[in-house]
Design a protein that fits this description.
By secondary structure, the chain is α+β, with helices and mostly antiparallel strands. Helices cover 22% and strands 23% of the residues. The protein has 5 helices and 11 strands, in the order αβββββββββααααββ. The strands form 3 sheets. Strands 2-3-4-8-9 form a 5-stranded antiparallel sheet, covered by helices on one side. The protein has a 4-stranded antiparallel sheet with strand order 1-6-7-5, with helices on one face. The protein has a two-stranded antiparallel sheet with strand order 10-11. The longest helix is centred in the C-terminal third of the chain and has 20 residues. The chain is globular.
């Protein structure tokens, strides 16, 4: 699933091409392309001007010159590509927005929503205090100015659950998924199964700091791509996978101590960690 670095890469890519453009048409090609809770069909955004492209955690939204917004979640395999209308339609094309093409750079005049596994969605939503309805319950992510480290540390410290699933809880801290949780815990030398209330405040701060640092490095690298399912708006893969220390490296030696990386299962997911460095 695309996590914060991948979604931020997409956000920045969209912003480069679409801000200030008007949506001339909007089409949906799959029954699950539009979220059931959407307050209007996709066609409702036709004629709207794109003011900005925003993100919180793993959620994206286009701020429009309207009293509603277009929100997007990439799910497991969603892509938002900016392409010419002359480019052949992809087999998993779920929706597309046509933009005024006369002044777009490189004739990139369409936003295409492609989703092989169809867990992603678009949604026309109301805005409350500049935040779309579906994002209102999502916690601030570590890159937002409003992120309150002290408050988040206190929330985590009170929990009786393990630290790994807590990091994945988007109502506590948003944007972190399986990849960057594993990487952050490895950097902080914290075992993924340690119960939160057994960690010190300084250890929790170190985990959060490690998460922010590894995600910033991933943003710089254009995100993490393991297959064709994640690409930036130009259809290019990210290359942070080569910098991962534990995720997807079960059986390989830890780069710190040379102990073999282990993989354990939990809640239909998995954790990768070093049994010597992370205790």
């Amino acid at each position: 699933m695309p996590e914060l670095p991948e979604v931020e890469t997409v956000r920045a890519g969209l912003a480069k091409y679409v801000i200030g453009k008007r949506i001339s048409s909007a089409q949906s090609f799959h029954p699950r392309a539009l979220k059931p809770a959407s307050i209007a069909p996709l066609s409702a955004i036709v004629g709207a001007k794109i003011i900005s492209v925003n993100r919180r955690g793993k959620f994206l939204w286009l701020k429009l010159d309207r009293d509603f917004t277009l929100t997007a979640h990439l799910g497991m395999s969603g892509q938002l590509l900016v392409q010419s209308s002359k480019y052949p339609a992809q087999s998993h094309l779920r929706a597309k927005l046509s933009l005024q093409s006369s002044s777009l750079r490189s004739s990139k005049d369409e936003i295409r929503f492609i989703d092989q596994r169809t867990f992603g969605w678009l949604s026309v939503e109301q805005i409350i205090k500049d935040i779309p309805t579906s994002v209102a319950h999502i916690a601030f992510d570590p890159f937002e100015a409003e992120f309150d480290l002290k408050s988040v540390v206190a929330k985590i410290k009170k929990r009786k659950s393990a630290i790994k699933p807590t990091l994945l809880n988007q109502e506590i801290i948003s944007g972190i998924g399986n990849i960057y949780a594993d990487e952050a815990l490895w950097r902080a030398k914290i075992h993924p199964e340690i119960v939160c209330e057994d960690l010190s405040e300084s250890e929790i701060k170190k985990v959060i700091s490690s998460a922010k640092k590894v995600m910033q490095s991933a943003i710089t690298a254009g995100g993490t791509s393991f297959d064709e399912q994640y690409k930036n708006v130009n259809g290019e893969a990210g290359y942070f996978a080569r910098s991962l220390s534990v995720y997807g490296r079960a059986g390989e030696p830890c780069s710190r101590c040379r102990t073999g990386i282990r993989r354990i299962a939990f809640a239909n997911r998995s954790s990768h960690f070093c049994p010597r460095c992370q205790r």
